[in-house]
Amino acid sequence: MNIPAAERRTVITGLGIIAPNGMGTDAFWKATREGVSVLDRITREGCDGYPLRVAGEVRAFDPGVMVEERFLVQTDRFSHFAMAAADLALQNAQLRTEEMPAHRVGVVTAAGSGGGEFGQRELQRLWGKGPSYVGPYQSIAWFYAASTGQISIRGGFKGPCGVVASDEAGGLDAFAHAARSIRNGADAVVVGATEAPLAPYSMVCQLGYPELSRSEDPERAYLPFTAEACGFVPAEGGAMLVVEEEAAARARGAPVRAVVLGHGATFTRSSRWDRSREGLARAIGAALERSGCAPNEIDVVFADALGTVEADRAEALALADVLGPRAARVPVTAPKAGFGRAYGGAAALDVAAAVLALEHGTVPPTPRVTDVCHDLDLVTCRPRGVELRTALVLSRGLMGSNAALVLRRPEGEI
Amino acid sequence: MSRELTYEELASLMKSCTGITMDPQRLRDDPQAPLADIGLDSLGLLAIVSELEKRHGVQIDSGPEACKTPGDFVAAVNESLTVGA
């Protein structure tokens, strides 16, 4: 279709969710809406004995059921999640990619650390037995780009493909990248992020983060926006979504779930959460400007919710800087407090949760949090029914990336 | 014992090294069917070559990983394995 690039809007038509609190849209939304917490002691093999005890594990995931063996052999768990989530998203969108020109379907993923579990196994072979025992798939499986490549190969998607390596915030930046691909001519992009940080080597890498929660109590380990906030709990999993050019989606009668309205990103620096205030505020400001959206049009905020008092304060102040008095009144939520923070996957899961919240007119609660110590209307304890048109999703990375994404319900469905 | 690579052994290696399930009879019946059609690329062939090198304790440097069909692959491997046998 020859629609000018500026008018090629990006809409979300499918959600593929592999989260600790549920696989698939229905299970995820039910648990998220009810504020179920699934944070628990880590049970994955070889992961005990480290000063990281609590995480969000995707225990229901059976890769052999969802992905063909030849793709499993070649890839790490983070790509297993990505391929399974991509399938769910394509099914959810009812997108028959086999009937589309292959070069009009693209893939964009974000990754924070690549395939640590696969890499550890091969490096142990290298130093334990010798170079000839390292399999050739080590050359591709650990790599940040692996999930994009494998989804592309597996689905035969030959359109614009890319990988965003920009920290947790990459999970939002990926949507901006996908929207750019749509503007430039792609009809559909499979986009999102999944991570698998719960393996011994990967866990050791995380132990250096001062923001990591070392609590052994699943009920107290991740309490963002409270005075007891003691860091974030990591998680595995994530979400892949299908985005399409709006006219093409409507022409095929697809369910248009939400419009990707605008994005903004900045980079401050690692471990300086006071500075993330300005960085996040500028990202939000840029996202609102590109969306043509006034601060008082924001109906719900999906917070980054890092879970240290300093970082949470910076986020609350960033919202106040941009939204003004609206910041204290707009419902804010952090569903990830119930299932953990899957690095880049966390931002993609927040996008999925925001789409579902807009559809249901329901702000899911922030699990386990009760006493909020910042000037925010944080939704706690139970879901809140409220008319929602526009959602703001925020993400910050431990290394200094800040991003904001604005989503809106499609017109005519309010 | 023959050192030569058979289609049975190749099928078994395809399974263990690359996760691809293949009936050895099909390899034998159509040895010129492109390996790409069953998703076996040069990385997969490299994994199989590496395993064969360990099994036989020899270096296979006749370039079988660049082969496009099972027939060519078996021939290239056997060229290396039977040298000096």
UniProtKB/TrEMBL annotation, chain A:
Residues 7-409 form the Ketosynthase family 3 (KS3) domain. Keywords: Acyltransferase, Transferase. SMART domains: PKS_KS. It comes from the Bacteria. The keyword Transferase applies. Signal peptide: none annotated. GO terms for molecular function: 3-oxoacyl-[acyl-carrier-protein] synthase activity. One of its GO terms (biological process) is fatty acid biosynthetic process. Pfam families: ketoacyl-synt, Ketoacyl-synt_C. InterPro entries: Beta-ketoacyl_synthase, Ketoacyl_synth_C, Ketoacyl_synth_N, PKS_Beta-ketoAc_synthase_dom, Thiolase-like. Belongs to the thiolase-like superfamily. Beta-ketoacyl-ACP synthases family. This is Ketosynthase chain-length factor.
